[in-house]
Amino acid sequence: MFSGSTLAQLVPFLIYPVLSRLYDPADFGTLALFTNLMIILSVFATGKYEQAIMLPARNVNAINITGLCLLLITFFCLLTMAISFFFGRRIAEGMGDPGLYPWVYLIPFSIAFYSVYQVMNSMLNRQKRYRSMAASRVVQSIGSSGVKLGGGFLKAGHGGLITGAVFGQMISAGFLFFRFCNNNKDWLKLVSLKGIKQQVKDYIFFPKYHMLHVLSNSVSVGLPVFFFTRFFSTHQTGLYSMGYNVAFVPLSLFAAALGQVLYQELSERYNSKQKLTPLLYDTIKTLLLISVIPFVLVMIFAPAIFGFVLGPEWETSGTFLRIILPWLFMVFLTSPLSFIPYVFMKQKKAMLIELISFVLRFAALSAGVYYNSLETALILYSIISFAMVAYCFFWFMRLTAGHDKELNVE
Prior knowledge:
There is one protein chain. The protein is mainly alpha-helical. It has two domains: 1-201, no CATH class; 204-410, no CATH class. 85% of the residues lie in helices and 0% in strands. The protein has helices at 2-22, 25-46, 59-95, 107-126, 130-153, 158-183, 187-190, 193-202, 205-231, 234-271, 277-310, 315-334, 340-343, 347-370, 374-409. The chain is globular, with a radius of gyration of 21 Å.
């Protein structure tokens, strides 16, 4: 999983210096707006039932959850197609970027590919098909990067970036779906209306609590993109998104790969009543060892690195990255553990924490807009985000420590 994530990120990093010279910052701003809008809407596509695929003891129940997710994705994407057809122009103008309009029609397809990928990824993770999961990341990276390069040379503007992103989603989702079908040739025979209804009932807390939690997180993480586009400019949004993506995307892929393996391992340990904290402590120590020095170096040299590698106009991206780096460091430590509330059925509290975080982040960015200062908005946003993620980190550790303490009592 780690090698796949590393290779998947190597290609984009190698071509960033080329893309930064083929596209304007405003093009990356429109891509960021498209991507964040898609991610937020995709929360509704499955009701977050894909997060339950790891939990059932019987494989037939996991298969029925998979079937449920695919049905939900189909219905939701048909709905978003109708909405984009009738209100596409209004959506783009309301977001503050009229240039997004022609590409709004791709959002339903992007949601479908992204959601199918998440469902298949969860199912293959349950079956420990890590090689296929890693290969899908590489396939997505190469396909997306190739189209973006081609669009840049053809002067396609933000359309080249958006098309590349959607193409990468399509081939990676198709790859995982093929691998799933190949490994589960009779899966359709196991799906039944009765089985789906039972899983809807058994895991209703995912759409009831976890969906709102993820929605709140997706919106609050995307808030800078929406605020900067609406109240400043797509140029500034592009500068911010470049700094954010260069750091966060590889960190999130690494953390997601680690989190998927941990989720599988901790679920087994929890079900077999084994201690959890030794594994978590070892994981955190490893993360600290591999991250502290790189984070310190980036904090010191980020503007100079961006200006040298991507071009002088991108130096501001390094400045923005420096502001949000403490938050991203905390995310790097915490996100591999974000599944822990699922294991302990604490989705309701996780949802409340995320809602509080959303309100505080919104207030922070609003204060920056009030003072007409993008940097002020970003500083306040980063401080709030760091504090909330740090709280979650210590809460996760308390949950596992409490579990181990109960085992000692028994």
